[in-house]
Design a protein that fits this description.
With about 160 residues, the protein is an alpha+beta fold. Helix content is about 45%, strand content about 30%.
């Protein structure tokens, strides 16, 4: 298993290597693309899988209805995948990822720190934008107040 600075580890599976990228302490993105596909039953596949940390640890990400639909498997030749390939992936890869993540707490913590830094930078940028907009609106109010004062003085 190798670790890259972008919070990604490579995990060897029975089908080939998958990249596991930690985006924060509670989410990882697992993938194999067409440049390094998985081979299942002699067929090459791309994989994209999101896993979240829930109350009992990492598992396939759930949608808003609680279903595990945050993953896809696609043949390189764009034909439909077989149910046997799907079963092999679901029976094997999530467990391997969970096992690998058990020894990668530092990776998850570093990803969390980076995520927090990115969120802070995004919020700071939003505050800067809002501050500029507020300053512009204050300037507009000042112009309106000056016009009102001038009109009131001319009427007097």
């Amino acid at each position: 298993m190798s670790i890259r600075e972008d919070h990604t580890i490579k995990i060897q599976t029975p089908f080939g290597k998958v990249n596991v990228k930690a985006t924060n302490a509670n989410h990882v993105y697992v993938h194999a693309d067409r440049y390094a596909p998985l081979t299942i039953n002699r067929v090459e596949y791309r994989l994209s899988m999101h896993m979240n940390r829930y109350e009992h640890g990492f598992e396939l990400a759930r949608n808003e209805h609680g279903n595990h639909e945050q993953w896809y498997l696609e043949r390189i030749d764009n034909r439909d995948y077989s149910s046997a390939a799907k079963k092999k992936v679901l029976d094997t890869i999530p467990a391997l990822v969970v096992s690998a993540l058990a020894s990668q707490q530092a990776l998850l913590e570093d990803a969390e720190l980076q995520s927090l830094d990115e969120q802070s930078a995004r919020i700071t940028c939003q505050i800067d934008t809002l501050t500029r907009e507020i300053d512009e609106k204050r300037a507009e109010l000042m112009v309106l107040a000056q016009k009102r004062t001038r009109i009131s003085q001319e009427q007097a």
